[in-house]
Amino acid sequence: MPLDGITGSVDPATQAAALAANQSSSRSQTMDSEVFMKLLVTQLRNQDPSSPMDTNQMISQQTQLAMMEQITNQTTTANENFSLQMRIAAANLVGKQVSYTDATTGKSIEGTATAVSYAGSVPTVTVGGKEVDLDVISGIKTAS
Questions:
Q1: What domain of life does the native source organism fall in (predicted)?
Q2: Residue 78 or residue 34, greater confidence
């Protein structure tokens, strides 16, 4: 989140020290609500009383932060749902005739899906004794 809309006189050294302390303790480079609140408190402590921070801008920044948190939560939920859908799709392949293109030979291979593994980020389906990523499977037939 950009901080260019913040007004009022704040000592740049104090602001930089607060950001550096938060970045070293933070696991990511993104600005979360905790970092925002620490920065806001630092700004309020060090602002010039004759030129206080504009409350409208402060409320606008808090609103933007809340919106970003909601978007992040929705993205996390969407990713979890996609992962669950991949797991369900992989499980539904067991016992079915599937086909895929072998990456080394370029040939189309068919076989019965016998097992599923969720060990990696993409589920793998065992076809003819070989583990194949779910996203490599190109066709499905009901085994007869």
A1: Bacteria
A2: 78
Q: What is the pLDDT of residue 36?
A: 76
Asked whether residue 2 is domain-assigned, the answer is: no
Last residue of a domain, one of 51, 69, 87: 87
Residue 119, both tokens: 């060990």
The domain tally of the chain equals: 2
124: CB partners within 8 A, 6+ apart: 90, 116, 117, 131, 132, 133, 134
**Is the pTM here over 0.85, yes or no?**
no
Distance CA 58, CA 107 (A): 61
Position 6: which residue type? I
